[in-house]
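Fold this sequence, please.
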Amino acid sequence: MFDRQGIPESTLYDGTGRLEFEDAVASLTSFSLIKAQSTKQPEQQVGEHLFKMHDFVQLAMMKRLEVQMQMGRWQKASLRIMDAAFPSGQHETRVACRVLLPHARRVLGYVIEETEATLERARIADNTVCYLILAGEYAAAENIGRTAVVGRENVLEVEHPDTLTSVSNLGSVLQSQGK
């Protein structure tokens, strides 16, 4: 349920059953359902393989999940994985953030009305905002920052430390824009 290009192996493989994972990748590759993506220099610094999926394959997969009423389940799983994978957004994590940014943006579009999913989405949003500030993408950071604030205000108290962190991050974005 991520972006179809530049999917890091770490978001697909949980560390158990390496042989099974490699067999699955080999099968998907042999049927041209996925491809190992040739990496550019910044992504090579991440030190892992990246995969891409043809847009028609992704569309067919999404339609199948809708028909089987499994879309929400996989969106929640994607949020959980991205929450664990997307780093703090600080300078030393910028390469990993750059690789994961399209996937974070994708999962931030999932609105799941469950407490844990809302909090995962807010954490991803906060980390994404920190990276976008570093990258100078203030307009995008503002929109995503508002998502984090609203999510945390809806689930946590307004004066909860995590909510205040989201408000502070949004304030940094607004200040950077002179607002």
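The first strand starts at residue 7 and ends at 8. The chain has nine helices and three strands.
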